[in-house]
Amino acid sequence: MRFRLLLFVSLLGLLVVSAPLPAWAQARFTLSGYVRADSKEALPGATVAAPALGTGVTADSTGFYSVSLPAGTQDLVISFIGYQTLTRTINLTKNQRLSFSLASANNELGEVVVQGSGTLEQKLRAPQMSVERLTAREAKLLPALFGEVDILKTLQLKPGVQNGGEGTSGLFVRGGSADQNLFLLDDAVVYNPSHLFGLFSVFNSDAVQSVDLYKGGFPAQYGGRLSSVVDVKLRQGNPEKIGVSGGIGLISSRLTVEGPVKKGKGSFLVSGRRTYFDIFTRQINKLNEGSPDYNPIPDYYFYDFNFKANYKLGDNDQVFLTGYLGRDIFGFNSTNGFNISFNWGNTVGSLRWNHVFSPKLYVNTTVSGTDYKYQIGNQLDQFGFGISSNIRDQAIRTDFDYALSKRHALKFGATVTNHQFGVGRLNANSGDGTLNINSDVHYTGQEAGVYISDNFRVNKNLQLDYGLRLTGFQSGSDHFGGIEPRFAGRYSISPKTSLKLSYAQMYQYVHLVTNSGATLPTDIWYPSRLNVKPQRSQQVATGVSFLLGNGKFLLTDEVYYKWAHHQVDFRDGAQLFANSDLDAEFLFGNGWAYGNELYLEKKQGRTTGWIGYTLAWTKRKFPPQRGTTGINNGETFYPTYDRRHNLTAVVLHQLSTRFNLTGSFVFSSGNPTTLPQSRFIYQDIYGANYNVVPVYPERNSYRLASYHRLDLGVVYKFRPRHGEQDLTLSIYNAYNHRNPYFIYFDQVKDEQTNLVIGYRARQVSLFPVIPALTYNFKF
Amino acid sequence: MNFRPTSLRLLHTLPVFLLANCGLQKDIDIELPSGPAQLVAECYLEDGITPRLTVTETVPYLSTTETITLPEVTVVLTLPNGTHDTLQYAPGLDRRTRKTYTHISKRRLTARPGNTFQLDITDKQGRHLTGTATMPTTIPIESVEWKFNDKPEGERQAYVLARFQDPANTTDFYRFQIHKNFVNKDTESDYNVDDRLTNGQLVTLGTSYRFNPQDTLVISLYHIDQPYYQFMQSTDDARSANGNPFAQPSAIRSTVQGGVGVFTVLNYQRKTVILK
């Protein structure tokens, strides 16, 4: 506690002593404005830099930038991934408003990313480390499973990020579990970011502008999860003219409409997609109708819609409205009259008001809501049975950006969230009233946070970004609080070499209740309450970055160590559903994760891409507690997402103006899994059939074989009379390697006697080589 | 009521179903973790029935050995009145249950609800397995009914419902079984429930449409204790984890200490009906 107090006082002290110094030597003025695409769409994350001064800023989520520069002539470099870098010389004699328009690097569909060296330089100079930025344009170029572009799976190709299993979009960042990622869609939380049990993410690449993944050194404005922040921003739509784009793929089709709301005032974008497995399976079922031994294939499909609109209320005010609705629908009618319907999905919305007080001060205020739920319904004659669970949030947050002086840029704000946890609703009833069971376990929780941070440019070589976030949570009469210091710093050894250091403490007040090896739609979110204390992590990371090859390459090496406290798991045989005493089923432990991430990227020229290598360890320990022997008898164990080695290589090559070739290669050590040590025969009360019961010793004591895969892609652009068209060929797992997905055991029987004569291990692989063709268009 | 065995379990197998359709499989050679063999005991006491018991030990999972009998273990059953009954090693097949056993008593057992029995097994390797079990109270089946669907003659099938009154003052666990004709053959329906959501209520348990006209059904309702309920749940979970990449393998929650297995006293009610 004394340490925390000391840290808090030290940070406040640093803020005070680093207060603005009086203007001296040379007058400075503020240059501000917007960075937009040539289609007038805002470009959040674009950089406006003055390389000669070693300074620059990143545009906010509206594309707005504000930078303090010395008076006089200045050379500016304005850049953004996928757009041609713009160089402008300005003569600054007063505070000035200036907006920039960047031309697309190529045409809209599937262009190779060409990026000015300014961005790599910005990355070198930024104090923020452990962050990955990806645009939908990049993701669209890379080969994808079934041709379905998935921005989260592309993030899995970055160092420090593991997947949850072949083909799945779950993220495991620097030893964190899947529920320790904060997914934000235009500032609104998304609780379940996947469709089809994790095979596809909910983020439609047609609607996404960009995604930022923070793995560590978290800025103070983010909080609520331990391991990562995935900040997804939607496109704002074309403010100049109505456009239609879309694609027809192997398993789904997409359509996007965008255009101006009122020319010069705003724009909108509506995007939707739907899978069509069910159309084929229904036909197969129809053809086999009446066949005595035929079991109908269950109905399954998913769809989602994205909506975004913005409107300029005046010179200094703009509003943004975002909506998302997605559902997975599953239906099954068994031949014995038992019907099941199962659907799940997110509904998300946010309304943001951007107000510019002055070129130095602006604020974003966002009201948002999110709802994730699943519902299961069964019907048999007069009997009905339903179970459901949901989590619903209403939140408001306000974020100020204040360019205090030439050396200090402050961010401060506050957020309040009301959580409603529908932990489990169950009803079973009959038409005649003889069966009537109802159970509803629900809680509420209120979460709040305030933060302040200062980006302090100490001198040309040293830049610090430090801050403090104070958080609190209450559920019923239970209260929790946390002090979350954040720090990131950069020291330039030379113009082409930077050292970086970061520290962050994070609190997580909501927990995912799951006892499966992966996240499933039926997992439940649960608040901190009674004995379930908040999860907490501390992460320290340091790294060095080199700009190589005349600024064409950036080589980064980062090491990190993360301590995780109050990690949650569940006792064996835990009753996780409709349990009013769910607290009693939790087990608590600690975790550690450490590793080294090596990353070489090239983003300039006809051949671009990156190579990432991660050497990492992740460990968990749950000691004996609450009348149990803990997990693994209290011994340390590796969670399933621990991978010792992980290598990724991504190459994008522009062969000609019409042909792009892409490829990605992944290698990772096998993931830990639990296999039985022994078995015994269990005859039961009556011995008509005996059962073979496996006895599992330690958790995750066996490792699957290593995983490696090569994906290839070709993008061919047509030259239609109107608009743009392309054909994308993806070849997933090009050399058809049988990667291990899981192992199971099978009985070996004597062919003559049909008696069991032994057991064998069988390895299941999920996807062989899968070619997929996608047609994309834009008018 | 515990709904894990029905809808949720079916839904958790959905991804397995979907993945299996894309699955590619091959045999592999692996070296599994090793450890000492544990004693395994399985014993169900029943009023009026001579106690029989099976004692074996765990075998390495990939071993070709199916099971190992242990002639040199000593099995002692302690009755409610404190007398000790040493069971003899006499492997055989119980025709009533169609089960093999390794040890048998010389006399029939008398058991009443509330009676507590103890089991003590030792062997020459120093392994020591113990267990305690109390006979649950009797819960009568209040009614059994069935209803046929509206399908044409020849395709008609019926579902079956059984009702019983759950006691209000205790936490209770049940095993519900339906057999066709004989109880020592495969079950048609077999699941376990608790009274977490139905405490003190008239409980209805049933099946889907699955029985034909003229079927003879034996409906059994076992009132069981929590350790036996947890043992069955854990063996079920452990077996389900084989082949399900989404399952977290479960440790066996035995009703005995010092080994693996189940020692319990049965108390059940049974009704036989012919679907007409």
UniProtKB/TrEMBL annotation, chain A:
Signal peptide: 1-25
TonB-dependent receptor-like beta-barrel domain span: 290-733
Top-level taxon in the UniProt lineage: Bacteria
InterPro entries, alphabetized: Beta-barrel_TonB (IPR000531), Beta-barrel_TonB_sf (IPR036942), CarboxyPept-like_regulatory (IPR008969), Plug_dom (IPR012910), Plug_dom_sf (IPR037066)
Location in the cell: Cell outer membrane
GO CC annotation, single: cell outer membrane
Keyword presence, Protein biosynthesis: no
TonB-dependent receptor plug domain sequence ranges: 148-225
Cited Pfam families: CarbopepD_reg_2, Plug, TonB_dep_Rec_b-barrel
Keywords: Cell outer membrane, Membrane, Receptor, Signal, TonB box
Family, as annotated: Belongs to the TonB-dependent receptor family.
Protein name: TonB-dependent receptor
Organism: Hymenobacter crusticola
UniProtKB/TrEMBL annotation, chain B:
Tree of life domain: Bacteria
Record Pfam families: DUF4249 (PF14054)
Protein name per UniProt: DUF4249 domain-containing protein
Species of origin: Hymenobacter crusticola
Organism phylogeny: Bacteria, Pseudomonadati, Bacteroidota, Cytophagia, Cytophagales
